[in-house]
Design a protein that fits this description.
Blueprint lengths: L1 H5 L8 H22 L4 E10 L5 E12 L2 E11 L8 H15 L4 E5 L11 E2 L5 E2 L9 E5 L9 E4 L8
Parallel strand pairs: 3-4, 6-8
Antiparallel strand pairs: 1-2, 2-3, 2-8, 4-7, 5-7
């Protein structure tokens, strides 16, 4: 699902670029597989969206991460099949995973993502909360969303689950 969601269609004359993007798209699929196999996996925060016939058309996952020594969540990947993009599936998945994380008593969700999309769900630059990315260059797209149990004492360097180190 993630390989298809992150792939882009290319003209046949751009076959090298299409191959590169296909390989990049499969990174998200491999990441989900690696997350499922590690201790950071939280099954309750791996959510799918299905079509009317029951086939999976979207998926989002949050896994265990940390800010300093405090357990928090890292969100991603979020993927929607191309035929279902721009139809509200991603929005529904985001609202569902944030609601589930809040219901589980999680304090904070952090992600590296598009600065125009994720603020729609309450994400703000992580630096506003005193949270620093593992790679300084990520700062303009490194965002956090507080949940009900958040306290301002949660600050410091963010660490993703180990499979993210291989991406």
């Amino acid at each position: 699902m993630h390989t298809a969601a992150f792939a882009t269609s290319q003209a046949p004359t751009e076959s090298v670029q299409a191959s590169v993007e296909s390989i990049q798209g499969s990174v998200e699929a491999r990441l989900v597989d690696a997350l499922r196999a590690c201790d950071a996996w939280i099954p309750e925060l791996s959510l799918v969206a299905t079509s009317g016939d029951g086939s999976v058309v979207g998926h989002v996952v949050c896994s265990r991460a940390s800010v300093g020594a405090v357990p928090v969540l890292g969100l991603g990947p979020l993927g929607v099949l191309p035929a279902f993009q721009r139809r509200g599936v991603g929005h529904a998945l985001m609202h569902a995973v944030l609601g589930a994380a809040d219901a589980l008593g999680e304090p904070l969700v952090v992600l590296l993502g598009h600065s125009d999309y994720y603020p729609l769900f309450g994400f703000r630059l992580a630096e506003e909360y005193g949270i620093t990315p593992p790679v300084p260059g990520w700062a303009p797209n490194f965002q956090a969303r507080t949940l009900s149990t958040y306290t301002p004492a949660i600050c410091g360097e963010f660490t993703y689950a180990p499979p993210f180190d291989d991406v």
